[in-house]
Inverse folding.
């Protein structure tokens, strides 16, 4: 091996130091273990026991010290046998696991160490004999023992239940948990006899240790769990009888009767104890239970010093009505006197357990307070369970209520109804306030002494709540939330009741404002928000409204207005943008929030389009109206006739004076011609004193003369012909055929034109009455300008 050439020699010299380094520590470790040691190693001891540990230091001389879990141990617990051996003595060791080390006092080096673990014995053993089937009798079915033991998680423990006196112990059962069960009836007869008078020991065994429990001695009757009792219930009107049957035995027995009742989502429970003598069956009478309520009953029993049996099958019973529980609390409300002289009285009383199995009948009878009153038929009235309406007259009455249970009188009470105008005391100064859902009522007592006060309240006139008080104040609970109540306080006397005083519309609680609804009218840069709040009873009065609005990305803005505002404008909005909005109504009692709404602003202001539409419509109407007026004027102008000279004739008439005869030019005469249609001179119109023919005024010198008008463009002249005696403001028709004298002109020339008449109908003329003094006609006829009438303008008339 040492003669290797080449590369092999190099490898040998490299590997040789490694071999030396590995061999030398192994040799030193063996020498160290033999020279330094702590014994015994990794031992298990029973918790609370004593132990000793030896520290050996063959090559190290001097003192040593000990540590337990790195904590110094008192030197008094150790002693040195010689210079190389030191003993540590531990008393009543209770640590579950501890590391013990021995150290050199000079160098403080660890000489050696060990780990001590403790174990415990099984303890608190209890055994029981019991039945699996609760309906079978005979020998018990099972035998079970249980105990307590501190189990080490790293060790597997096997338990064995040993029965009998040591050393003649027999194994009953085995288990790896702290409970062990065996079938009692499957045990051999010799083991059954052992159990009858026996001692039980539990053995715990592992690979490292073995422990036995302390002996557990028992009497089989003390561990026997008997069969559960059989329960029977009987309900009477004033008590409940509970009976049960237990297992037959010649030993004393203890029993418990449990009964319970569910009240407002919780269960009230009571337990009664009863001890039975040998062969005695159980029964208990229970009196203190509420009427017409469901109770659950159960019973369990146990032999003396034995465990309790299972509870019997639970039974539920509805208790019957107990007469001692009946409190009618009768009261009434009286309406105003009606026109027929009748008052409606509502009689009310506390409902007597509607769930009762008993048959209850309520009968009302009203009787006059004074025996000599007559005029009303007082018959019995059968009523419902809690209210009844009866009619009484204006006199005082006594209302009597009788309750019958299965046709037997069960309870009775009466109440007084005062007469109309009866002088009775009445409370004053009634006041009511609301606080946290209750109503506080106070009043001033009358001068007369009273026995109490009856306070009744209602929120709808049908359902009443009434309560009696001995003081001048009362607190009303259990009221409906946010309801207005009418409260009446009536003083009570020994056999009468006074008149009631009322406090109206007292809210049980003033809540938040009513529901808020909004409507939005959107424009381009603004929006009109209309607010409305539903009016609800007992809602808080709104102090202000806050409008919250925002875009999807923008910050939330708000506007606050007072409670009187119903319309509010949101300004500085972005056109063609969607907004979300809601309104919060604030009152002193809270706030109410409306549902969130969304709206989108317009691109243009719709009000501008509306204004332009209205203005355009007005302009179109004006243009159409102007065009229509122009068309009408044009039609009138186009249809306006012009004088046609072809329809007139020329003639000269001599002026007729008082001394002259007729003019050589006689006027043309037509049968239909009227003297009023003749032509008058312009000068006669201008001169107010122009002479008139004498024959027109001969019949009535004082009669009025008529001034005649034709077309607005011409000025009429008075006619010089004889006119009718009566002149009225109408169309003037003169006698045809009469001649008319021509009026003189400035050049004393006669007019060559004569008057023309229309063939169809004479034109209408407007006449006006006026008076003239009689004058003489001028002797000389002067030439005058002659006008023609509109009768000449007829296009179809020819001469």
């Amino acid at each position: 091996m040492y003669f290797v050439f080449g590369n092999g020699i190099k490898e040998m010299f490299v590997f040789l130091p490694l071999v030396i380094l590995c061999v030398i520590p192994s040799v030193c470790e063996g020498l160290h273990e033999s020279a330094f040691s702590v014994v015994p190693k990794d031992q298990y001891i029973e918790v609370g026991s004593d132990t000793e540990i030896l520290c050996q230091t063959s090559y190290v001389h001097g003192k040593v010290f000990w540590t337990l879990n790195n904590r110094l141990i008192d030197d008094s617990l150790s002693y040195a046998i010689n210079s190389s051996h030191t003993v540590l003595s531990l008393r009543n060791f209770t640590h579950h696991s501890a590391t013990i080390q021995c150290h050199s006092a000079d160098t403080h080096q660890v000489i050696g160490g060990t780990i001590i673990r403790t174990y415990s014995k099984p303890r608190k053993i209890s055994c029981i004999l019991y039945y699996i089937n609760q309906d079978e009798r005979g020998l018990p079915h099972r035998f079970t023992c249980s105990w307590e033991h501190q189990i080490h998680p790293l060790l597997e423990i096997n338990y064995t239940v040993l029965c009998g006196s040591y050393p003649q112990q027999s194994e009953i059962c085995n288990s790896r948990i702290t409970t062990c069960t065996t079938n009692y009836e499957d045990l051999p007869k010799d083991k059954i006899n052992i159990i009858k008078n026996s001692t039980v020991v539990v053995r715990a065994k592992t690979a490292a240790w073995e422990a036995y429990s302390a002996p557990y001695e028992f009497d089989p009757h003390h561990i026997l769990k008997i069969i559960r009792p059989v329960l029977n219930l009987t309900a009477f009107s004033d008590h409940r009888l509970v009976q049960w049957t237990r297992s037959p035995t010649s030993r004393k027995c203890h029993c418990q009767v449990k009964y319970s009742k569910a009240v407002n989502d919780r269960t009230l429970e009571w337990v009664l104890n009863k001890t039975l003598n040998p062969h005695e069956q159980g029964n208990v009478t229970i009196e203190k239970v509420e009427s017409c309520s469901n109770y659950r009953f159960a019973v369990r029993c146990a032999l003396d010093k034995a465990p309790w049996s299972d509870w019997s099958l639970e039974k539920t019973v509805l208790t019957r009505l107990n007469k001692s529980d009946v409190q009618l609390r009768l009261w009434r409300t009286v309406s105003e006197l009606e026109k027929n002289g009748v008052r409606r009285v509502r009689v009310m009383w506390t409902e007597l357990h509607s769930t009762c199995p008993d048959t209850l009948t309520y009968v009302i009878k009203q009787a006059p307070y004074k025996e000599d009153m007559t005029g009303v038929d007082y018959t019995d009235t059968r009523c419902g369970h809690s209210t009844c309406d009866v009619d009484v007259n204006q006199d005082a009455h006594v209302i009597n209520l009788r309750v019958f249970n299965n046709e037997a009188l069960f309870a009775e009470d009466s109440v007084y109804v005062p007469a109309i105008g009866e002088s009775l005391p009445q409370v004053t100064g009634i006041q009511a306030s609301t606080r946290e859902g209750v109503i506080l009522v106070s009043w001033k007592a009358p001068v007369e002494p009273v026995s109490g006060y009856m306070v009744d309240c209602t929120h709808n006139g049908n359902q009443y709540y009434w309560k009696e008080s001995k003081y001048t104040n009362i607190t009303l609970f259990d009221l409906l939330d946010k309801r207005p109540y009418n409260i009446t306080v009536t003083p009570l006397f020994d056999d009468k009741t006074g008149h009631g005083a009322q406090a109206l519309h007292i809210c049980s609680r003033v809540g938040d404002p009513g529901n808020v609804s909004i409507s939005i009218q959107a424009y381009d840069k603004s929006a009109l928000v209309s607010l409305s709040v539903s009016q609800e009873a007992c809602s808080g009065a709104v102090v202000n409204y806050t409008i919250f609005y925002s875009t999807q990305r923008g910050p939330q803005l708000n506007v606050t207005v007072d409670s009187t505002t119903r319309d509010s404008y949101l300004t500085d909005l972005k056109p063609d943008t969607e907004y979300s909005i809601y309104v919060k109504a604030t009152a002193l009692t809270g706030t109410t929030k409306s549902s969130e709404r969304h709206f989108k602003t317009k691109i243009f202001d719709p009000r501008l389009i509306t204004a332009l539409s209205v203005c355009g419509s007005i302009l179109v109407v004006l243009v159409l109206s102007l065009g229509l007026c122009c068309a009408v004027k044009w039609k009138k102008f186009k249809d306006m006739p012009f004088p046609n000279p072809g329809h007139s004739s020329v003639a000269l008439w001599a002026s007729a004076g008082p001394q002259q005869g007729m003019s050589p030019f006689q006027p043309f005469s037509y049968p239909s011609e009227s003297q009023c249609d003749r032509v008058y001179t312009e000068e006669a119109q201008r001169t107010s004193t122009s002479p008139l023919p004498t024959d027109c005024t001969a019949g009535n010198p004082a009669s009025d003369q008529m001034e005649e008008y034709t077309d607005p463009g011409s000025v009429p002249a008075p006619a010089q012909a004889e006119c009718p005696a009566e002149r009225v403001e109408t169309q003037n028709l003169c006698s045809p055929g009469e001649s008319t004298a021509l009026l003189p002109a400035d050049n004393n020339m006669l007019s060559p034109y004569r008057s023309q008449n229309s063939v169809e109908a004479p034109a209408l003329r407007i006449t006006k009455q006026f008076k003239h003094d009689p004058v003489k006609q001028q002797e000389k006829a002067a030439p005058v300008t002659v006008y023609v009438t509109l009768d000449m303008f007829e296009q179809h008339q020819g001469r």
